[in-house]
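Input (structure):
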């Protein structure tokens, strides 16, 4: 596949030969089978905030964490949180979590966790573990999607009736996308909207979109090797 756009958090690939089945398999591997770190257990010691423990645990579990390839499978990394609104109301943010391992930290420091009124306190310990989104959505660290190239590229007007056109998906501002000719909804669409597909990768943690894509490909290659062994 050809790279048509790349930055730290987004990768856009143009596919002309790959089947839709392969693109969908890659999308599923990227979303649900790439390992990452997430909070799996939380011990509450003090909480007189307006939010009860179960609600906070669900919210905290979805805070993205960084990733490091050297983390062992059975890793259990402790994070502490100790915030008190002493003199005035205070908002607890994800940056208030303190990790015992400098390699695994909160990614996205400005995520609000809870609002404390004066005199309220939140003290807890959260443990980060390794997993995949097949187990729980909190382990999802990237997203993949694909579609016909014509759905992502805005052309000036319909080539049949000259109606002004807009992209139906949100990549019209990305430079370098294939300039497919598409028809408006009032006119008949061309068969298949062209042969080219776009595959989009977005990363939610410290890894780049390209690194996330490479990890998904490795997952698929491992599955292929396992399948080959089963047939022998």
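Output (sequence):
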């Amino acid at each position: 596949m050809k790279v048509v756009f790349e930055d730290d958090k987004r990768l856009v690939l143009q596919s002309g030969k790959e089947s839709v089945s392969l693109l969908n398999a890659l999308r599923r591997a990227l979303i649900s089978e790439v390992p990452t770190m997430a909070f799996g257990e939380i011990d509450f010691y003090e909480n007189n905030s307006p939010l009860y423990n179960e609600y906070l645990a669900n919210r905290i579990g979805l805070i993205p964490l960084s990733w490091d390839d050297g983390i062992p499978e059975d890793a259990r990394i402790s994070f502490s949180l100790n915030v008190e609104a002493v003199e005035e109301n205070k908002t607890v943010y994800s940056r208030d979590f303190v990790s015992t391992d400098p390699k695994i930290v909160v990614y996205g420091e400005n995520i609000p966790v809870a609002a404390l009124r004066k005199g309220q306190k939140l003290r807890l310990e959260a443990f980060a573990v390794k997993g995949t989104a097949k187990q729980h959505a909190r382990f999802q660290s990237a997203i993949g999607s694909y579609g016909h190239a014509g759905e992502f590229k805005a052309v000036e007007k319909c080539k049949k009736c000259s109606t002004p056109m807009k992209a139906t998906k949100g990549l019209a501002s990305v430079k370098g996308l294939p300039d497919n000719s598409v028809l408006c909804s009032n006119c008949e669409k061309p068969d298949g909207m062209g042969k080219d597909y776009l595959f989009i990768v977005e990363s939610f943690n410290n890894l780049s979109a390209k690194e996330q894509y490479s990890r998904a490909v490795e997952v698929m290659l491992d599955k292929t090797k396992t399948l080959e062994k089963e047939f022998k």
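Notes: The domain at 37-138 is CATH 2.170.120.12 (RNA Polymerase Alpha Subunit; Chain A, domain 2). The longest strand covers residues 36-47.
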